[in-house]
Each structure stands twice: as C-alpha cells, then as structure tokens.
Amino acid sequence: MPPLSPSLETLPQPVQQRIVVLALQDDPSFALIALTALGRSLQAATRSVLARSLTLDDDDGVLVAAEEWAEQRSEGRGPSQDDRGKTQASGAGAVKGSVLAQVVAKDEWADDVRELVVVRPAVDPATLPPASSAHQFEQFSFDEDSPASSPGEADSPIPPLNDAALFGLIRRCRNLASFTWSSYRLPPDDLCQVLGDSTKGLLHFKVEIVASPLAGGAGAGEEAGVAAGSFVGSPSSPQLGTSPTASFASHGAGSASHAPPRWDAPSLSSLPSTLTSLSISSLSLAGSRTLSNSLASFPSLESLSLSRTLFIDDAVLSSIGENCKALKRLEVREMGGTKISENGLGEVFAGCEGLEVLVFDAVEGRFSRSTWSNLAPLPSSLHTLKLLYPESGPHKSWVLDHLSSLSSILTPAGGPGLKRLTVSRKVRPEALVPGSHHLASNPIDPTLDPSKWVLTAPSPEIEAICEDGKRWKSLELDLWAMDGGAVKRVLEECAGVRKVKVLLDAPFRNLLTLGSSFAASSALQWFVVSIPPHHTPELSSLDPNEYLSLVGASPSPATSPTKSPSGEKGEKGDKEDRSTHPVSHLSTLTPPTREWRRFLKRSHTLESLTWAGRGGLGTWKFGSKAGSSLLRVEFEPTRPSSTATAGAGATEVPKSPRSPMGRRRSSILSFGTTPSPTSAFSTLSLSPPSPTQTAQTSPQTSPYTSFGSASREVCSPSTGSARRRSSTSSTASSAFFTSPSHTTGSGSALGLYPIPSPPSTAVGSRSKKSFADALSGSNGTSGGWTMSAGGGVTAGPGWAENGNGTPAGSVPFVEEEEGAGLKRKTSGGGRRRRGSPNTGRKKAGGATNGGGRK
C-alpha cells in the first residue's frame, strides 16, 4: 500500500500561511471556507494572514461601531437590536465581520495583529465645509486647555479616535511589532508609555503628521498628483525664465500659510528597548531634545528616519553617533534648517561604524566646500549614499557648495565600500507632464539650473567614478547635466552597473549613437534619462490638457515584453510596431521599433529605457516572446499620477454609525477605573467596570454619558475638560487589513475591506448567491484580493444583500467557529451547519469576550 500523503494540517504554520495567501489570491471565497469549514490549523493560518496588518482610520465612529458589535455579540443580541429587542439604527451592522470587529471581540484575532496603522480618515468632498471653515480648521490649537483643544471637534465632520479607546485596542494587541501614526493631528501624549507597557516586542515605530482631511491637497510628505482633466496651465502660460516675478518660495517645503503642528515626543524613551526602526516627523524644539536624550534607550536601533524638523542640529547627530552603535540606515528628509554641518555628520561616521545607507533628501544644512574631503575616508560599511534636492526650491545659495569636494569620496580610497550613488533632482509631478515642463508655473530654482554645471568626460567626478568602475551597482547622477562623452565613459568603464540615471545635455535621439557603449555595460538592466527643456522645442507647443486627454483615453496597462498581448498570434503580432506615441505629432521624437532593434543587437541585458524628468515621454520595454528570438519593443507613455489627497481611491464600505441615538462605548475597550485628572494612562483596563466602580464614578469623571443621549460627553484624559464627540457625524469608513509593507502616509490609496463572506440567506432575501457571485454583483466585478511580497492581503469591495433583500454597503458577517464551545469535531474539514443570522447562536463556553483575557 502506498504511503499516505501528508495533509495540510500537518504542514508548518509558515507553509500553511503561504498556501492561504496563494489561495486567497486565486479565489477570495477561500477565506470563508478556511474560517468555517477547515481544520483549526488552517483556520489559525487564515486568521494570521487576515489580521497581520490592521489599518484604522482616525475616526472614532468606526471604533465605537466595532465595540458596539462586540458587546452585542458577547450579550447574545442581534447586531441590529437594542436591549429590549427592538430594531435600531446602528453602525455595528456595518462593521460586523470586519477585521477590526474581530480584533475587538476575540483575543485570538487580537493576538495575531502584528502591525497597527492609524491613518487620516477619508472625507467625501461633498461633505466638506466652505473654504473659510476649512481654513479655520487648519488653524486649530493643540493646547488641551483651549476650547478647541483637538481637531475633529466642533469644526470637523469627523470626531477623531478617543485616546483611551485607542490605548485599549493597543493593549489587546499584545504581539504588536509595528505601530504607525499617520494622521493630521498629534498623537496622544501617553502613546509611547502605553506602547512600552503593552507591546514588549515592538520593533518599528513611526509618527508622521500629514495634512488635515479638510485641507483638500497633499499633505506634508505627500506628492501632489496630477489628475487627468484637472491640469491648470496652457502653452500660452509664461515659460521658464520669462516671468521675472515668478515666486519659487510658493513651491517649497515651507510654503504653508500656517504653522505646522510640532510633536514634543513625550515619553519617547518609554518605547521598548527592542526597537529596531524609528521614524519621526515634525518634531518641535523640545521634541528634538527628547529624541537626543532617548536614543540611549534603543541599543538595537538599526534604522532612523527624521523628516520635516527645523531643530535637528549637530547635537542630535552627535547623540546618534554616541548612542546608536548598531545603526545601519540614517535618513534625514525635508530639513529646511541650516543647523546641520559636517561636524555632526563626522560624529555619525565615527560612532556608527556599521552604517550602510545615508540619505539626505532636501536637506539644506551648512556644509562647506571641503565637506567631503574632510570626511574622507568614509566608513567601509557605507555602500549607499543618496543626496536629493527638489528643483522648485527655495534653496540657499550655498546648498550645493559641498559637491565641489564630492570626488574625494568617489575614489576607492575615499569611499572604499560605496556601490550605489545618487546625486539627483526631484521634479514636481506637474512638471513631468509633457507640455507643462517648460512653464513658469513649474520653476527650476536658479541654484539647480542644470546649464550651470555640465559634466564632461574629464570632469573630476567622472574621473573618480571611473577609477574603479566595476564596483558600482547603481549610479543616479541627474543633478548635473552630462554631455554624450561623459555618459559614454560611464557606460564603458562601469561594466557592473545595473541602473544608470543621467540628465543628458543633448537631444534624446543621440542615445541611439551609443549602442556600443551600452553593449560594453554587460550588466545594465535599467537606463533612465532626462532631457533639458531647451533640447525639446517640439514639446513647447503641446497643450498639457490635450496630452492628458489623449493619454488618459487609452489607460490599458503595458503588456510584459515576455508575453504576447491578448489576441496576438503568430508573426503578425511579433512584427507589429507598438512603440508609437498616442499623441501623433510626438511620434517624431520616439524612435521606431526597427531602430530600437538595431540599437539592442549587442545590449542583451537592457530591459527598459525610460525618458523621465521634465517632459519625459515614457518607457520602452524590451524582451522577446517565449520561444521566439525576435526582439519585442513596447512603449508606455508618461501618465499622470493619481491625486494624493485624503481618501482618493478609498472604498467606502462600512460607514461610521449614523444612529439618531447616541451610544455608550462598549465595555470591551472601556475603562473601569476613575480617570486621573492628569493622565489617560491610569484608566487602562481590559475588564468591564464592576457595579461598584460604575456606581462610584461620577458624571463628571465618567468617560461616557448614559446610553441614549444625543451625544457623549468625554472627560479629557489629560486635562479633565469636557470634550463633546458626536457618534453620528463621522464620514469615514471602517478599518481594513493590508500588507505589512504598507507605507502610505495618508488614506489616499487605502481601501476599506471587511472579511469576505457569503450573502445573507435570512428570510426576506430575494435570492441566494454564491460568494463568487457576491464579489462581482450585478454590476460586474467590484474588487478582488491582492498580495504583496510581504505576504499581506487586501480585498476589493464586495457586494451583498442584507436581510431585506436590498444591496448592503458591506460584505455580510462571517462567524468564525468557536473551538472552545464545540464538543464535536468534523473530520476531513467538514462544514458545520449554520443557522440564520436572525436566529440565536449557541454561545461558546468559558468567559465572554467582554471580560478580561484568560
């Protein structure tokens, strides 16, 4: 008899989780099967995948609805019934079955959360107040003693998360390894203290202050996008260099008309000592001093990122060098101050002997012309150096003076470990659209004018790079302009480089004369080139609105060069020219396929060539069809990026509660001790309040008013002043799950996805649909699951029917099997018969979810 093959249940958990990820990618309905019908091991693997990363809008209504659902579930009531069994309007039904609701209700789900991200909520533009109100909202005070002590009160349509409730959620997630605060307001004062006491294994901590949801534009740290059809500008607008009154300051990092919020980083040293990654933006003067004094508490810190802080100086850098001995990556971004000098950077190099990556992005500083010669030689561990500067400025006149000595560290003796070098310019997204790149509305700061600094083959920088060219893996040198001779020498002498980015001081077609040089660079895979506007006069007459309309009319994604496009067969598909630009009169600027094939005859490793930067036309991808030696060339034109505003692209699947009656907060995350007049930290508790404690709590000190009031009076944890937070005014959507690699600083690209489940089969439903049908619905496919390299899962919005047979706004609830309450166990992954959602469910044995942990 042949040996029995092992079952999925016997596989290790990481293998099962990987199988679940692949299964969800192929069929989203597998989540329902895995959570209800398969064995406990696969249930646990599925739960781990879904709950791994939890992203929560900074909207208190969402958390209130999740708590309410958890309370109703623990009490055995239906999600749409009150204490008397009457149906009531409630937000709990909207979030039932979402990951957030499961985390609030069940300890096993909370224990599987590894990443928690708080983001700015999405706002429907139709609900925004007038511009004057939005401006007043931006001028809010962060003084807790002021009447408008926190954004999101009277002037905001979205009440922010209650601090104490957020702390309760954090305490439930005991295995949290990563926490990110990316909202429009400052984090709670006791956040670091709570994380330090609750999450002993925390590895990553990030605080990023973004724009208000009422600002209507990109926030700090976000790139403004260009939406098709929304471009402002025309060929009749002034061109670069023709408008003497053009203001460069209006495009700088510090162009905000009001003072941005600054974080004091209270109790930063209370974070666990296990921290390996720390990222902080918008520090105040006190916050920068707190950071300096707290670095000694993190001996395992490997990555440190500081951004948008005027108060980072040499003292902070010296503290980094003294205390962060294990540091491998240091990023300093958007620092308009001039308090950083070569002395502080030298302290970092001296103390952080294992430093591998150094990034200075939009840093002004006070660096002298001899900076790099004074710092040479660099640590041998440093293999990546990135220096980036925004074109629009404004910049100090000396900002690039230190580059005069950069050649000192580009030699093998000055930078023995360097393999990746970036000295690049950052172009405004609006200037990337052909036809707008030459307008005065998209200026180039005179300090970064490429015509002032053109590298040639004998230039000291080129000489130093080519002294030992084989060591380079990546060279991005588009801050300077380079002539054809300099590009030719770099390609020929840096044979091991895989990516090259240059600003070519010549027409684009001149690249085709460098075929032999490309062939000499035997490892080159990606080549990116920018062309100064004066070499593209054909683009000066192009209307950017016309370009956006033509490119946006054919948004089909580029097909992979290694695969035949749909519908193509045989030789006809191979011979078809797909390198023509959608804008017909720009085709003269793009070489035809036959010229590309001639160019690539000897450059077999090149995968793509991109015309990027100002007015860049797009990307050419090269490859061959499977089983064919004929080279294929496919062209993808430059397309505008999506607008990076709050909530862009977000799916409003369950809404915040809009009940006409106020609701008290559930005991799942409420707090039974009397709040301290000075701290919210003392009120933390996972157990429901006892009758005695409830009786002793006065209305003035109780966090919540009685059930049934129109709104809830909340005692401020830090000041004791009353704060009114309406549970019916929120407009954002529920929490959702996403991949651990999630790095968005706002809700712009975030969906709001509950756990998928089959449509309701309750009495009154018009029909019974399969879960696969539910995903597509009557209007076609509305969403699907996506996977990331990190193993995270996101699901598109689903379609469902509620108990009355009308389309619901969220996917119906999935009740996970209660292993503790089931005395029988099916074999072979059998499915337990499920009752109607309106009928009572058999309660599991043991303590209810409203109590403390077992």
TrEMBL record:
InterPro entries: LRR_dom_sf. Residues 70-93, 235-263, 550-591, 636-854 are annotated as: Disordered. Residues 246-259, 553-565, 643-660, 673-707, 716-744 have a biased composition (Low complexity). Residues 70-86, 566-580 have a biased composition (Basic and acidic residues). Gene3D superfamilies: Ribonuclease Inhibitor. Residues 822-844 have a biased composition (Basic residues). Residues 581-591 have a biased composition (Polar residues). This is Uncharacterized protein. The lineage of its organism: Eukaryota, Fungi, Dikarya, Basidiomycota, Pucciniomycotina.
